[in-house]
Amino acid sequence: MLAGLAILIYTAALIAIAGSVAPRLALVFSPLGKIFWIFIIFFSVYLWVSFILTILFAYTNLPLFLYLPFKTIFYLVPSAMLLGKILGVKRESFEKSYIDISNRINKKRIAKQKPKKVLLLLPHCLQAADCPWKITFDIENCKGCGKCSIAKFVEISHRYNIPTFVATGGTIARRIVKKTRPEMIVAVACERDLFSGIIDVHPMPIIGVLNRRPFGPCYNTEVDVEEIISILDTVIPHPDNDKGRESIHG
Ligand code: SF4
Q1: Residue whose CA is closest, atom 3 of ligand 1?
Q2: What is the Å distance from ligand 1's center to 99 Cα?
Q3: Domain range for 250
């Protein structure tokens, strides 16, 4: 909703600018004033239509026939964030809302055009803190003891035959994306990391799944593995999905 408020402020500012600039332009060449007004009105209407369509695409069954509206809203994110800060909106709630809307739009995008190369990115904090095995860069080093969810992700990686990496931070995650060149990413992280990741890889479709932090941030975090499997099932068809699910859930 902050994007809507940002557009409202933009519209008011644009009208104020047009009100002062258009008469001066008309003095130089009379049609210029009108042309400037038409441009400002057209641009304001475009912003509102983009906002309304983005909401409809994300929260209704309306098919995603145009990606441009969401792309326009994407460019309003910095100003909406600034506005949120001024209004005292928690950064985490803003990030959560953006992740939700982005996930909904991206799910429709991938349903339309299934990506061939999917990357699964996991945060290091999913690994049990006292596990001695180094799984960053090579998840296969996990010994499958079952103490944390990494063992399940090794199975998921084999089952769907997708590259799966554990990243210790944003820089490493960006390096992995650059190296693997996926067409779509399924990422697990906290609000802050997911949000910055989504912004970084835009316009690549990314479905973000938030981790749970029962012991506080960045320590022995958890994630709903079933949710990841459901997302992958929609992208990568597998002949024996139910059998595979049973084996992953043990
Ligand atoms: S499941 Fe793998 S990563 Fe997790 S504690 Fe056991 S060996 Fe370590």
Answers
A1: 142
A2: 29
A3: 96-250
